[in-house]
């Protein structure tokens, strides 16, 4: 079996220009390293808040690189340059609104501004794309909320079994 590829796409004008270090994408890699025990590799990139670039990279990670899962971080707020959800919707065939609903519900336990977040998720061919917030603490909270459903979702869209580390996360799979 080939190594599992997971795309990690940080969307930030300033991080892409080197104004500051991207810590959000690195947090996703850290969390996935804790949660996944299967052999996997991250495909990581930082790009500016440009919708066409986001769409191009999501398509490349999915169609050319064969990622089963892509996490984005950043660009999910109400600001004019926050266009990650629009890019995700444009490249996906099926939207999975439950992911965004659960992430906002989780974040609302910590900050009332969680209602401003527009994260979503969708499926492009055989790739699950999940938009995460931009702050590392929020990333961990949101991934912890939605990850229990991700391995089974990946199986349903045609990927092999993803082994996880029960010491860090409990995932749900229906009994066969």
Automatic annotation (TrEMBL):
Q: Which UniProt keywords apply?
A: Molybdenum cofactor biosynthesis, Nucleotidyltransferase, Transferase
Q: Which residues form the MoaB/Mog domain?
A: 7-153
Which pathway is this protein assigned to?
A: Cofactor biosynthesis; molybdopterin biosynthesis
**Which Pfam family is an annotated match for this chain, by its short name?**
MoCF_biosynth
SMART domains listed in its UniProt record: MoCF_biosynth
Output the Gene Ontology terms for molecular function. Answer: nucleotidyltransferase activity
Regions annotated as coiled coil: none
Q: Which PANTHER family match?
A: MOLYBDENUM COFACTOR BIOSYNTHESIS (PTHR43764), MOLYBDOPTERIN MOLYBDOTRANSFERASE (PTHR43764:SF1)
Protein name listed in UniProt: Molybdopterin adenylyltransferase
- What is the organism field in this record? Aquimarina litoralis
